[in-house]
């Protein structure tokens, strides 16, 4: 089963199931609107998503559309962990800049 997030549908994207050849996809808002929602409720949604994936591979989905990988967003556009990493990196950069301002240039390490 391949899952993707399309850039449409808001800040978190739209969850789609994609076939193995990355040619056809199906939106599945009735199962989970976003990949983040699917991951949070994985025990509930993995079965229905697998059924959709099997139907898509068998060519039984009339709502399938051509999948364009360039319309796909990052898998988890606003994932909680990436938000924490960004905050940590920003905080770290601020601390490094502050330390650089406080330390005289003569204390810099050289080769």
Describe it.
- With 111 residues, the protein is α+β, with helices and mostly antiparallel strands.
- It has a domain at 2-78.
- Helices cover 41% and strands 14% of the residues.
- Strand 1 (2-6) and strand 2 form a beta hairpin.
How would you sum up this structure in a few lines?
This protein has helices at residues 35-40, 42-57, 80-102; strands spanning 2-6, 14-18, 24-27, 65-66.
Strand order of the biggest β-sheet = 1-2-3-4
User: What proportion strand?
Assistant: 5-15%
The value of Rg in angstroms is 21 Å
The DSSP helix count reads: 3
Query: How far is the N terminus from the C terminus?
Result: 51 Å
Order of helices and strands: EEEHHEH
Question: Roughly what percent helix?
Answer: 40-55%
The biggest sheet, with number of strands, parallel, antiparallel or mixed sense and barrel status, is: 4 strands, antiparallel
Would you identify the regions where 5 or more consecutive residues have pLDDT less than 50? 82-87, 106-111
Roughly what is the average pLDDT, rounded to an integer? 79
Class by alpha and beta content: alpha+beta
Shape: elongated
Count of strand segments:
4
Q: Could you give the topology of this structure?
A:
Layout: E1 2-6, E2 14-18, E3 24-27, H1 35-40, H2 42-57, E4 65-66, H3 80-102
Antiparallel strand pairs: 1-2, 2-3, 3-4
List the main descriptive attributes of the protein structure presented here:
111 residues, alpha+beta, four-stranded antiparallel sheet, 14% strand
């Amino acid at each position: 089963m391949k899952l993707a997030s399309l850039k449409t549908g808001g800040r978190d994207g739209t969850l789609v199931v994609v076939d193995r050849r990355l040619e056809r996809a199906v939106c599945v808002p009735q199962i989970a609107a976003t990949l983040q929602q699917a991951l949070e409720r994985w025990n509930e949604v993995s079965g229905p998503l697998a059924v959709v994936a099997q139907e898509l591979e068998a060519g039984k989905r009339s709502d399938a559309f051509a999948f364009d990988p360039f319309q796909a967003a990052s898998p988890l556009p606003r994932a909680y962990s990436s938000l924490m990493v960004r905050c940590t990196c920003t905080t770290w950069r601020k601390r490094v800049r502050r330390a650089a301002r406080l330390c005289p240039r003569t204390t810099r390490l050289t080769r």
